[in-house]
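Bug #2210: token dump truncated for Innexin?
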Amino acid sequence: MVTKSWLANSIDDRDENVKLVEAASSTLLCASSLFGSPVTCHHADPDRISNDVINTYCWVTSTYTLPHLLTASDRYPTSHIAYHGVGAHAASDERRYHGYYQWVAFVLFLQGVAFYVPHWLWKLSEGRRLASLLQEMHVPVVDAEDRSTRLTNTVRYLRTSLGSYSSYLTRFVLCELLNVANVIANIFITDRFLGGQFLRYGPRVLSHFITGSSTSASPMSETFPKLTKCNFQLVGGSGSVETIDSVCVMPLNILNEKIYMVLWFWLALLAVASVLAFTWRVVAMSATALRVPMLRATARLADPRDVAEVAERLPLGDFFLLTLLAKNMDSVAFRQLMSELARELGPASARVMATIPKEIADSQTLIRQAVEKRGAAVE
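Reproduced locally. Full output below:
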């Protein structure tokens, strides 16, 4: 049985990305059992209010760090900083709130679904047409008589449906374009989700590891702090509001910082690969001169003369279908397919004559017959 034969193209490479993202989501969903509570907060008066209440409040709302305390300075020396981004501060100091942590698993799952969409659309649009044409000919060992019958059926179908695969190629190109848009959109959505910290996350992490600065927080700790602050508003008996300042430990950020570091490089690689693949697809399909080298590179066992003859005569959509067959079909079977297809298509002059309107062809025939009769009369 043909397994994923109709999926052998760049669109379905995104399956690996889907698996990666979904695996990361599953890891995060199970992380609370590995690292304990997702947030553990401590404050100065646990007798008045339970730590469980503070923990739940800070998890449901958000915690914050102080950007001016991420790096030691004359105003805030290291002795005044409890942890990068955490320390004594004034009420007017800028705060950077972190509310993403409770949504990480869901966002990663949605990204996995988004990466599956182009694959699903192509699979739905393709309708297993390529698998039907292959007829188990991806298997190297096939009975010679069965292979001959299947090849004859495939060639007959390709000849009958000649010129009908333009929309097939168009749908494929649109799915590849959707891949490019999908990757780029995911990069910017992730950056927005992490508060504008994702676009330069990978290079900043590498730069920090290379320089090894000890006076400033690493980009990983800056984006995914392990220690944050949280303010709980407590209403007293007289109605006055009292602010309880808490320090919270965020153990899940140990995972988050590494997952998003891997995700940054993976998305960057996918973005470059997707753009290059789409550009190559457009150039290769637009330039007729590249058809023969492309097909020869895939069908190494096929006769170069058959390859050249078929590549020059097939319309663009049909040629694209043939390249997919070459990638999925056994090399020996494809060599026979090319031989039969070259013979079936006939000489180039026949194809040219087939495009001439019937009236013109008939008039040319009458003129030729008249010339022949006149020549015979003269003799």
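Output looks complete on our side. The chain has two domains: 5-285, 352-379. Marking as cannot-reproduce; reopen if the truncation happens again.
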